[in-house]
Amino acid sequence: MIDANTGVIAADVRTLRTTDGGLNWNIQTSGRGRDIYFTDANTGYCVGGKGFILKSTNGGINWFDQHNRKLFATFSSFY
């Protein structure tokens, strides 16, 4: 969870976001992956296989491709 109400989860084919503490989850139109990590309330990274990297700068509402096609490992966050 980013804070007590806002959270984002990765579910391989989609990203889900809540703003009510997890009571309801909304499918985001962009973003999919295997793991998500936020460095602060706005900046987050979503990672997956084959160099797949997305970045959000607005709390997980939108995700932007940071693809590194030269990498073919599956990424995972550790925290």
Q: Indicate the structural class.
A: mainly beta
Low-confidence stretches: none
Q: Quick check: average pLDDT?
A: 81
Taken as a percent bin, the fraction of beta residues is 25-35%
**Tally of strands:** 7
Cα shape: globular
How much helix, percentage-wise, in residues? under 10%
Number of helices: 0
Count of discrete structural domains: 1
Strand order of the largest sheet: 4-5-6-7
Indicate the radius of gyration in whole angstroms: 12 Å
Q: What profile does the largest beta sheet have?
A: 4 strands, antiparallel
Report how far apart the termini are. 13 Å
- SSE string, helices as H and strands as E: EEEEEEE
In short:
The protein is mostly beta strands. The chain is built from no helices and seven strands.
What would the keywords be for this entry?
four-stranded antiparallel β-sheet, mainly beta, single chain
Description:
The protein has 79 residues and is mainly beta. The protein has one domain (7-65). The chain is 0% helix and 30% strand. It has no helices and seven strands. The protein has a four-stranded antiparallel β-sheet with strand order 4-5-6-7, with no helix packed on it. A three-stranded antiparallel β-sheet has the order 1-2-3, with no helix packed on it. Strand 5 and strand 6 (53-56) form a beta hairpin. The mean pLDDT is 81.
